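Final report, closing paragraph on structural work. Over the funding period we assembled a curated collection of sequence-structure pairs, and we close with a single example.
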Amino acid sequence: MVTLLLLSGCIEHGVQQLYSVDSWTQGEPNSPVDVLWVLDDSATMSEEQAAIAEHAQSFVEVLLEADVAFQIGVTTTDIDAQAGALRGPVIPSSDPDVIEHFAEQVDVGTLGSRDEQPLEAIRMATRTPFASDDNADLLRDDTFFAIVVVTDEDDHSREDIGSYLNHLDTLQRDFAIQALAGGLPEGCNSSAGTAEAAERLLEAVEATGGGFRSICERDYEPVLRAMGLDAVGLTDTFKLAAVPAVDSITVKIEGEVILEHVEGLEDDGWSYSPAQNAIVFHGEDLPPPGAYITCEYLDYGDREWEETSE
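Its predicted structure, as stored:
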């Protein structure tokens, strides 16, 4: 990020009013991308599976908008019954019904083992001999491998995390694990139930540069969208260098002014996130790969200046 500061107005009580211009460049996407979803199919996961199926479009549309050649496979955390085998054929981006087929496959049911072992399932899904003929199609040559784990328990795989990461290294490609699970230190609670703190999963996520999100989020639409962005290596969130006067913000992509997002009225545009002190893009206004983005705003007092006399 680059920030240009322009002095505006006068100094009052040692605080300088500033006109700031922050700028960023959207990254280039991971392409092509092979995605493996590993879903918990134990008895407590029906609500979460339904939410993912309901918002499958949010995940897939990000990949489609990024114009990457992707494909998706789905397996479960039950290594006894599923043993890493995919639940159906790999779903390619060229499939005209890719969203519908993805939504169908993530409905993995709730009859699986309560001994969730997602890391072992990842290894089983990607090692030879393949667990099924479908698994042989999961990884293409020269692809980025995006792994998504969804569970309300921690990983109970028998070996240390390093051994599973070493296996992924043998696949000779870049990869990242992201997780939708219970956060540290105590997990989380929601209307769907309680999620255990996923300490081992968080360690695997952090070791591979992936993203970790709470499975207890009420709204899965932004969660699935963020996970799609992680999978392709793009972002919809750009942090500001200073706290802005919100009504002074002007956002541009490649010099074109972008309208502010209005919740419930507009699907596109930008919004300001106070919690992150960031500009967040929505819908079709997600900056495309390589796009130059600027945000102009007034900063009313979070930079302190010393007054000096000559």
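The chain has two domains: 2-27+237-299, 33-232. The two ends are 35 Å apart (CA to CA). We thank the funder for supporting this effort.
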